[in-house]
Amino acid sequence: MNHRYRTPLSVARGLGSSKDGLGHWWKQRLTAVALVPLVLWFVVSVIAVAGQDRAHVLSWLHSPLHAVVFSLFLIVSLYHANLGLSKIYEDYVQVRWLQLSSRIATDFAAVFLGFAGVFALLRQAFGG
Amino acid sequence: MPMTMNERPLSPHLQIYKVELPMLLSGLHRITGIALSVGSILLVAWIASAVYSAQAFAALSHFLGSFIGQLMLFGWTFSLIYHSVSGVRHLIWDTGRLLEVKQIYASSKIVVAITIVLTVLAWIVGGGFPGGAL
């Protein structure tokens, strides 16, 4: 009658089925909390400049405050997106190699977008 | 004959359940999350084109001003606002609050209402409807 759903090896390792589930959960919540003020800032200020001409956008990006907060918004939201997408792959992509390659491709894309975005922001902020 | 696998509890399939607002919103949270992930490409393209190339910025602005571009921007605004409002509800749930069934139905309606108001407001303030500022 003693149903055991975990293998002896997983008991020995002391890990559940999700391995790093708590760490993932915590990082997702932490980035979510950080995104609350960042999104508020983003919606209020970026919507105001989104329709403007290039010169206006550039002078807006020249402000160190805007460059720093925009960089933070990019980095934190890309990290949060990467965490969320990896969960979606785990839930819906059953084929192991496809799941792994999707995660790797998303990791690379997130890092590329983060570096490209922050580099452009810094270049403008430092008056490139 | 019964193997260990067969004794494991199984969750009923999605189609078994009656469609209700909270489950639609749960799915929408994921869908808007995916949309925002894809949308981040557009955001980086917007910054990079503004910084590096007047030509690319003009082309992107022209596209965003088109009907399809405006539709994408509207979807992006909606996704950002919905995912944020719904995300705050998730954070409240994480503290163990508002988890009663009645509260979940009520808060679902509140999430929808706040999302609609903020999305319309953002769109009006942004001045971006068909052929708008972009």
How many individual helices of chain B?
Answer: 4
Low-pLDDT stretches of chain A are none
Find the CATH superfamily of chain A. Fumarate reductase/succinate dehydrogenase, transmembrane subunit
Instruction: Summarize the helix and strand pattern of chain B as letters.
Output: HHHH
Largest sheet of chain B: none
**Quaternary structure:** heterodimer
From the coordinates shown, what is the CATH architecture of chain B?
Up-down Bundle
Largest interface: A-B, 35 and 38 residues
Percentage of residues in strands of chain B: under 5%
Number of domains of chain B: 1
Can you describe this structure?
The complex is a heterodimer of chains A (128) and B (134). Chain A has five helices and no strands. Chain A has helices at residues 8-13, 21-50, 54-62, 64-92, 96-125. The mean pLDDT of chain A is 89. Chain A has one domain (20-125): Fumarate reductase/succinate dehydrogenase, transmembrane subunit (3 helical TM bundles of succinate and fumarate reductases, Up-down Bundle), CATH 1.20.1300. Chain B has 134 residues and is an all-alpha fold. Chain B has one domain: Fumarate reductase/succinate dehydrogenase, transmembrane subunit (3 helical TM bundles of succinate and fumarate reductases). Chain B has helices at 21-52, 54-65, 67-94, 101-126. Chains A and B meet through helix 2, helix 3, helix 4 and helix 5 of A and helix 1, helix 2, helix 3 and helix 4 of B.
Describe the protein's topology:
The complex is a heterodimer of chains A (128) and B (134).
Chain A: H1 8-13, H2 21-50, H3 54-62, H4 64-92, H5 96-125
Helix pairs in contact in A: 2-4, 4-5
Chain B: H1 21-52, H2 54-65, H3 67-94, H4 101-126
Helix pairs in contact in B: 1-2, 1-3, 2-3, 3-4
